[in-house]
C-alpha cells in the first residue's frame, strides 16, 4: 500500500514528525504530498529572518485582498503588489503560531530590501526618517495580522517579546483578533517577555496593553503561559492575575526580578493566585525569584502538580510546609542562584545543606523520576537516595572538591539511574579526581553527559576502567586532539558494544570540519553502529 492510499489523517500525522528540511522536499513529490506539507510548513512561519531573504512577506502580501492593498498604498507601501500572481494556497489560514517580534523583523527586512529600489528612493526622499519607517512597519504589520485572521487562522500559540523602550512596534488593534472567527478563541499557549515598565497611557504600546487586558476574556483554553518580566508593574499584574484565574492553565513559567516593595507585592499576588489552578496545574516553573518573604504553603493546594522547578532562585528559608507536607512530584529542579549561593557556601555551607535536605525530604518521594540539583553535599545526596529510590534521571552541578569521594559513589550506585548529567563550577573542581571516581564506580548509567572538558590522559583512564555500558554519551574534548579521543571511544565500543550515539562539542559553534584521519576513525565507529552528532542536539533531546 502506498502512502497516498492511507487515510488523510494518518498521512498528516506521519508528516507531522518530519523536520522543515524534509517537508520542503515533500513539496516536490506530487500534489498530494504538497497539499499536506504546506499546512505544516506554514504552521509556524515567523522564525528568525535570514538576511536578504524576503520570500515570507512576499508570499503573505500575495494573499492580501483589494481593500488591504489599497490601505498599504495610502501609506506609500506599494512595492510590486500589483505584480504578484494569485497564491497557490491560502497560507494565512494555516498559521497556528505567531511570534510578534520575529514577524516585525521579517517586515523590517522586507521594507529595507525594497527601499534599495532606485525609484523608491527618488519618490520618497523621507524614507529613512525613523518615524516614517516605523509607520510603514506598523501599517504592514497590522495588515498582515488582519489577513491572517481574515483567512480564518486558528491561532493557538502567541509570543510577545518587548525588549526595547525606544523601538517597539505595537500590536494591531485588539479588534483584529476578535472580529474574524475563530480568531484567538482557541489560543492554548501565551508567552510574554517584557524588559521594561509598561505604562498604561503610553501610546507606543497601548494596543499591547489592551491585548493583555482582554485576552483572558476572549479565550477559555490557554493551558500554557510564560511570564518573563524584568519588573512586574501594576499595569501588568492585573492582566496576569486574570489569565491565571480564568484560564485552565496546566503549565506556568514565572521569571521576574523584584527590586522594590510594589514589585514584590505584585509577585506575591501572582503567586498566591496560583491557588485558583489547584485542579489543573501540572507544571510550575520559577526563574530568578527571591523567596525569602514568600510563603510557599500554596504549593500544598496544587493537587495535580507533577513538575516543580526553581531555577536561579534564592532566599529559601525553612517553612512549616517542608515539615508537614509530602509531595508526589515526577520531576523536580532545585537550581539555586549560582553566584549568590557560591559565596554563601564558603561560610554557610552546613546551613544551606540543611535547608536543601529538608526541602528534598518534602519534595521527593517514590514517584520522583527526574531530579536536578546544584547544591550537592553528602547529606543532600543521601536524602535523594532515601526519598526517591526510583529516580532514573539526575542532573547535578558541583561547586566544591569536598567529599567527592563520598558523593559520587552514592550516585553511581542508584541502580535505576539511566541518565546522568554532571556540570561543574569553573575553576573549583579537580576534574582529574572527579573523572577517576566516576570511572571506578559508574555501573548502571546508559545516557551520560559530562559537561566539562576532560584532558586526554583522564579520558584514557575513564575508557579503560569504566564498567558502565553507555548507549548515548556526550563528551567535551580538546579540539586539537580529537582523533585521539575518537580512538579511545572506538576502543570502548570494541569492549562494550553498547554505544549508539556519541555527542561531541563543536569548537566555538563551528562545523566539525573533520580531518581525513578523524573521518577514518569515525568510519570505524559507524561500522560498529555509532552515530556521531552535535552535543547540543543530544543534550536537548535527552536531558531537557
UniProtKB/TrEMBL annotation:
**InterPro entries of this UniProt entry?**
F-box-like_dom_sf (IPR036047)
Protein name in UniProt: F-box domain-containing protein
Traced from the root, the source organism's taxonomic lineage reads: Eukaryota, Fungi, Fungi incertae sedis, Mucoromycota, Glomeromycotina
Amino acid at each position: 500500500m502506498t502512502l497516498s492510499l492511507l487515510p488523510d489523517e494518518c498521512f498528516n500525522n506521519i508528516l507531522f514528525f518530519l523536520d522543515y528540511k524534509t517537508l520542503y522536499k515533500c513539496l516536490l513529490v506530487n500534489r498530494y504530498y504538497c497539499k499536506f506539507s504546506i499546512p505544516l510548513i506554514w504552521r509556524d512561519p515567523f522564525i528568525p529572518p535570514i538576511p536578504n531573504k524576503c520570500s515570507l512577506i512576499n508570499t503573505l502580501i500575495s494573499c492580501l485582498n483589494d481593500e488591504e492593498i489599497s490601505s498599504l498604498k495610502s501609506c506609500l507601501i506599494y512595492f510590486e503588489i500589483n505584480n504578484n500572481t494569485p497564491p497557490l494556497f491560502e497560507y494565512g489560514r494555516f498559521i497556528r503560531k505567531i511570534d510578534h517580534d520575529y514577524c516585525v523583523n521579517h517586515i523590517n527586512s522586507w521594507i529595507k530590501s525594497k527601499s534599495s529600489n532606485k525609484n523608491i528612493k527618488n519618490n520618497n526622499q523621507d524614507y529613512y526618517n525613523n518615524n516614517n519607517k516605523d509607520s510603514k512597519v506598523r501599517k504592514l504589520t497590522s495588515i498582515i495580522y488582519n489577513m491572517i485572521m481574515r483567512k480564518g487562522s486558528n491561532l493557538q500559540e502567541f509570543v510577545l517579546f518587548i525588549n526595547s523602550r525606544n523601538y517597539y512596534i505595537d500590536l494591531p488593534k485588539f479588534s483584529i483578533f476578535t472580529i474574524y472567527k475563530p480568531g484567538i478563541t482557541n489560543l492554548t499557549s501565551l508567552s510574554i517577555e517584557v524588559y521594561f515598565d509598561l505604562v498604561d497611557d503610553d501610546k507606543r504600546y497601548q494596543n499591547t496593553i489592551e491585548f493583555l487586558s482582554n485576552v483572558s476574556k476572549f479565550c477559555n483554553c490557554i493551558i500554557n503561559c510564560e511570564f518573563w518580566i524584568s519588573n512586574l508593574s501594576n499595569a501588568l499584574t492585573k492582566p496576569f492575575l486574570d489569565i491565571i484565574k480564568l484560564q485552565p492553565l496546566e503549565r506556568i513559567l514565572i521569571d521576574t526580578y523584584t527590586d522594590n516593595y510594589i514589585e514584590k507585592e505584585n509577585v506575591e499576588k501572582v503567586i498566591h493566585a496560583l491557588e485558583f489552578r489547584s485542579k489543573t496545574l501540572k507544571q510550575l516553573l520559577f526563574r530568578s525569584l527571591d523567596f525569602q518573604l514568600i510563603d510557599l504553603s500554596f504549593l500544598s493546594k496544587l493537587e495535580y502538580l507533577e513538575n516543580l522547578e526553581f531555577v536561579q532562585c534564592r532566599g529559601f528559608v525553612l517553612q512549616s510546609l517542608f515539615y508537614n507536607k509530602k509531595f508526589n512530584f515526577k520531576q523536580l529542579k532545585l537550581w539555586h542562584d549560582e553566584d549568590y549561593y557560591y559565596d554563601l557556601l564558603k561560610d554557610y555551607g552546613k546551613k544551606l545543606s540543611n535547608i536543601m535536605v529538608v526541602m528534598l525530604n518534602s519534595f521527593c518521594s517514590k514517584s520522583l523520576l527526574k531530579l536536578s540539583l546544584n547544591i550537592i553535599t553528602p547529606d543532600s545526596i543521601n536524602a535523594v537516595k532515601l526519598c526517591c529510590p526510583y529516580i532514573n534521571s539526575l542532573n547535578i552541578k558541583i561547586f566544591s572538591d569536598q567529599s567527592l569521594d563520598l558523593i559520587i559513589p552514592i550516585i553511581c550506585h542508584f541502580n535505576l539511574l539511566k541518565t546522568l548529567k554532571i556540570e561543574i563550577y569553573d575553576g573549583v573542581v579537580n576534574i582529574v579526581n572527579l573523572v577517576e571516581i566516576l570511572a571506578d564506580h559508574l555501573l548502571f548509567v546508559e545516557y551520560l553527559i559530562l559537561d566539562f572538558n576532560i584532558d586526554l590522559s583522564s579520558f584514557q583512564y575513564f575508557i579503560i576502567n569504566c564498567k558502565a555500558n553507555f548507549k548515548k554519551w556526550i563528551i567535551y574534548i580538546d579540539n586539537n586532539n580529537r582523533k585521539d579521543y575518537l580512538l579511545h571511544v572506538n576502543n570502548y565500543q570494541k569492549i562494550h558494544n553498547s554505544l549508539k550515539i556519541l555527542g561531541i562539542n563543536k569548537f566555538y559553534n563551528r562545523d566539525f570540519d573533520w580531518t581525513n584521519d578523524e573521518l577514518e576513525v569515525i568510519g570505524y565507529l559507524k561500522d560498529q553502529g555509532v552515530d556521531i552528532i552535535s552535543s547540543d542536539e543530544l543534550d536537548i533531546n535527552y536531558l531537557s
